[in-house]
Amino acid sequence: MAQRSLTAWFTLPGLRQPAPPTPAEAASFDALLPKLGYLSKAEVKRVREAYKFADEAHLGQKRATGEPYITHPIAVAGICAEWRLDAQALMAALMHDVVEDCGVSKAELIEKFDATTADLVDGLTKLDKLQFSTKEESQAESFRKMLLAMARDLRVILIKLADRLHNMRTMGAMAPHKARRIARETFDIYAPIAHRLGLNQTFRELEDLSFRYFHPWRYAALSKAVAKARGNRRDLVSRIEGEIRAAFAKASMRVAVQGREKTVYSIYKKMREKGLMSFAQVSDIFGFRILTEEPLQCYTALGVLHQLYKPQAGRFKDYIANQKDNGYQSLHTTLMGPLATPLEFQLRTEGMHQIAEQGVAAHWIYKSRGKQASALIAQQANARWLQSLIDIQDETRDANEFLEHVKIDLFPDSIYVFTPKSKIMALPKGATPVDFAYAIHSDVGDHCVAAQVNGEAVPLRAELKSGDIVEIVTAPGASPNPAWLSFVRTGRARSKIRHYLKDLEQEESRELGEKMLAQAMRVEGLALPSLELDDPAAPIWHELADWAGSTGTEQLLVDVGAGRKIAAIIAKKLARLMAEQGQRPDALALTLGRFTETPVDRASVTIDGSEGASVQLASCCRPIPGDEVRGYLGRGEGLVVHTCECAVGKRLFQRDSEHWIRVEWAEELTRGFEVGVSLLLTNGKGVLAQVAQAVAQAEADITHIAMGDEAPALEEVEMSLLISVRDRLHLADVLRVLRRTPAVQRVSRTRP
């Protein structure tokens, strides 16, 4: 490897450009043709056809600079050609604005070119529609992640970056306020994406151009200072160049030496970080890059430099052994040069340098150089996400198959969706419209009744995808459903739902407790005292709550309703407190109450289906309207309703009869009730469909089905169903229809 000259060492790496073409050349295919040498003749022909199509579509359109609009797509395709992107990517680059600006449809692109190229153009068009709001850093970060998550093909992001890079290079003719907005957007969104993908050259240029248009006065002052320093230090640079050349010649090492100057923005950032008030205080604006042939030679070259100049303590980093996540590899060291000038050195191989500057685009560059270079990149670029690209390349040499497998998904644990007002929301993968609703506001989640995604109605349990536009439909009387807890993914949604249900349970338990205590007081021949705070009976309630160990009257009633306190015992204590104040039981009421009292008759609760968490139907016997039922007031479990025939309920009654109360079914019911049904079936094709059809014929709904794991291999199978019915008569109709089904040998209600 021959040594390279340092004559142009002070040119900014990202901003050095060849002599600009003439206006006529810039608007013609001739400006792009010299860069297409790596493509076949057939591929160049296809790219030319795309140019002609774009040229006709943009005919008559002008840029802000006054140039024909086609000069922009040509320049974007030229940047992509420098990255050696394939013909389809170049075609998409040439046509990336035809859908948005010229009314061309995706179907037309598929018909004239191919589906892959049309998909690339469509992906670029969708990204163009995103409306950025970079006022908040969190929004900017979400947009960056969403761009990467939405771009299913890596080439979409690369073309988009090339598009933004050319727009930034030619933004001088734009109004200052627009330039500032675009510069901020570029700095917040596109420059970090370029950095994440390892496109360091593009990253540095985008950062520098953003700084130039966002802070024009600061940029101009620093640029002037850098140019002046460059001239003043030319003799020093020549001296360092000579010493480096001599040192490597003495060591008989063939290396390439490149000069490197910090960008204006990186100098500005260093001044801010270190609190420097003047450019004169910045000493390390120059650096050098040493390129070797093999990784081991990087360490040998490091030794040569450390013998030449004294290294600064703590300023050495080994990114070859410990490469960065985006595949970057280099040795970094800072040395004290002549006149105590700090000099930064980067040492890397040619392959590492290509990855460092071009990132993921290095794949296409290496592909055009043959198998030897591909082996080199496989050896050197073994970072986690970049290694996956190389592994795929090693498995297949077909470019189309490679690109089919390379799907960019850098943030697999998150999705990014929009509100109808284009605000982006970050949610975990698998999130649902309910998660989205609670992410907006707890009131939206609590009153959510339906959702629309991209204008279409979807179930509340549907999984959202990145890019979805989600709209929540609310209703004032709606409330959270306990079933939501089975599918929500965010901790916020889960905690809000539980909090609401807990509050609801408290209120229901309070109402139940008040009702039960009133019934128990009637047994004592007394009416329940008023619960109003300003009532004379208020001190009695406070004393009663203290005696019962509750924090207040409300909590006492909740405890009674939830089964943590026994209503009869609380009623007896309350009766004694009232007697101390001169209130005596009514003789007739006392006689009637005690005459009719049995353990189960102390209170009465009516079930209509609208009860909440404080009243539950036992899962062992699953009572339905028409069953004779009774309620068990468990300790802290609320009221659990069993059928009188339930074996579990009978055992509980024998052991703890004091905790049972009378329960009745209401005349008007608000919903269906689940009941278990067991079936013995003759196994065969379509047997499940027969059962489902029979249940539907009886106007019932199946809510759950269970079969044994060995069912497919057996001649006879047992099936368990949960069916929603209105009452016992409705269940009888369902069982009668099922018995008439040919595949059903036996059917019965499940009992504990």
UniProtKB/TrEMBL annotation:
<dbReference type="InterPro" id="IPR004811">
    <property type="entry name" value="RelA/Spo_fam"/>
</dbReference>
<dbReference type="Pfam" id="PF13291">
    <property type="entry name" value="ACT_4"/>
</dbReference>
<comment type="similarity">
    <text>Belongs to the relA/spoT family.</text>
</comment>
<feature type="domain" description="ACT">
    <location>
        <begin position="676"/>
        <end position="752"/>
    </location>
</feature>
<dbReference type="InterPro" id="IPR043519">
    <property type="entry name" value="NT_sf"/>
</dbReference>
<dbReference type="Pfam" id="PF13328">
    <property type="entry name" value="HD_4"/>
</dbReference>
<dbReference type="Pfam" id="PF02824">
    <property type="entry name" value="TGS"/>
</dbReference>
<comment type="function">
    <text>In eubacteria ppGpp (guanosine 3'-diphosphate 5'-diphosphate) is a mediator of the stringent response that coordinates a variety of cellular activities in response to changes in nutritional abundance.</text>
</comment>
<dbReference type="InterPro" id="IPR004095">
    <property type="entry name" value="TGS"/>
</dbReference>
<dbReference type="InterPro" id="IPR033655">
    <property type="entry name" value="TGS_RelA/SpoT"/>
</dbReference>
<feature type="domain" description="HD">
    <location>
        <begin position="69"/>
        <end position="168"/>
    </location>
</feature>
<dbReference type="InterPro" id="IPR006674">
    <property type="entry name" value="HD_domain"/>
</dbReference>
<dbReference type="GO" id="GO:0008728">
    <property type="term" value="F:GTP diphosphokinase activity"/>
</dbReference>
<dbReference type="InterPro" id="IPR002912">
    <property type="entry name" value="ACT_dom"/>
</dbReference>
<dbReference type="InterPro" id="IPR012676">
    <property type="entry name" value="TGS-like"/>
</dbReference>
<dbReference type="Pfam" id="PF04607">
    <property type="entry name" value="RelA_SpoT"/>
</dbReference>
<dbReference type="InterPro" id="IPR012675">
    <property type="entry name" value="Beta-grasp_dom_sf"/>
</dbReference>
<keyword id="KW-0808">Transferase</keyword>
<feature type="domain" description="TGS">
    <location>
        <begin position="413"/>
        <end position="474"/>
    </location>
</feature>
<dbReference type="InterPro" id="IPR003607">
    <property type="entry name" value="HD/PDEase_dom"/>
</dbReference>
<protein>
    <submittedName>
        <fullName>RelA/SpoT family protein</fullName>
        <ecNumber>2.7.6.5</ecNumber>
    </submittedName>
</protein>
<dbReference type="InterPro" id="IPR007685">
    <property type="entry name" value="RelA_SpoT"/>
</dbReference>
